């Protein structure tokens, strides 16, 4: 059997026995070692009535969850060319289950130096990497990251690798700000402190060139626009599911020439990467290389590890805890 975590009704997650998926000719079967919770997306999908992504109708219950994992290949289809049984891989678009069948291009070979913990965050890491690429960051440009969930933390680390200076991390939670400094931020701010935007502009010597907005809140976008310099670029990485907010576009966008960049992970080419527009497979490979060469450690972001058996309690916490940590399931603990 294939132990799988499913959202069976609003707010309820269960570990259920499912069939092991059949492997198609162009697919590989991966036995998972680790899978990562994407807190924002999974919280939304655990809530009744949510749309899975823009333009789609709500999907029925039960719902599969999770999409970033790592493991070992245990079966390959007849047409698979680059992957073989026994390979260690990172998985893009998987789910929380013992066994996942994926297209060959959705699995990425791992060198022995990259841990399963790091690899299980690779696909999630491609999201902020794409956002930074789309903003055309240049070395020495000032950057600000709104929100220090897992995407915000990754953005801080990637901006440092990319040469942004200074990097300002923003979050209302003190512990998140402290962690951001350890991860490479040059300064941190509370968005609710007095003169927030003024302080951000002072730190960045006139305003940020690049902003990565990860909160998904209208207020977050409104605030970060006040922190930008002329001709700045703002990546909308957080999923703003509530459209009921107002922005003074004339004063905050039109006048200063701000570029707003849609950075949803589906807004990228399916093949043939080009400047600023890489495929998710190429971005995954880039992240794996950064980890393998010691320039970037995704594994250090993991804060808690649980057995899949503990999934019901973990997801009850996810629903209510807005400071939910970076969590992985260890499938060896079944």
Give the secondary structure arrangement, pairings included.
Blueprint: E1 2-9, E2 12-18, E3 27-36, H1 39-45, E4 63-64, E5 68-76, E6 88-92, E7 99-103, E8 107-109, H2 116-119, H3 122-134, E9 143-146, H4 150-162, E10 167-170, H5 174-183, E11 187-189, H6 196-203, E12 208-213, H7 218-225, E13 228-236, H8 249-254, E14 259-262, H9 280-292, E15 304-306, H10 311-320, E16 327-330
Parallel strand pairs: 9-10, 9-12, 10-11, 12-13, 13-14, 15-16
Antiparallel strand pairs: 1-2, 1-4, 3-5, 3-7, 3-16, 5-6, 6-8
Describe the overall structure.
Helix 3 (122-134) packs across helix 9. Strand 12 (208-213), helix 7 and strand 13 form a beta-alpha-beta unit. Strands 3, 5, 6, 7, 8, 15 and 16 form a 7-stranded mixed beta sheet that branches. A 6-stranded parallel beta sheet has the order 11-10-9-12-13-14, sandwiched between helices. The chain has helices spanning 39-45, 116-119, 122-134, 150-162, 174-183, 196-203, 218-225, 249-254, 280-292, 311-320, and strands at residues 2-9, 12-18, 27-36, 63-64, 68-76, 88-92, 99-103, 107-109, 143-146, 167-170, 187-189, 208-213, 228-236, 259-262, 304-306, 327-330. It is α/β, with parallel strands linked by helices and 334 residues long. The model has no long low-confidence stretch (mean pLDDT 93). The protein is built from 10 helices and 16 strands.
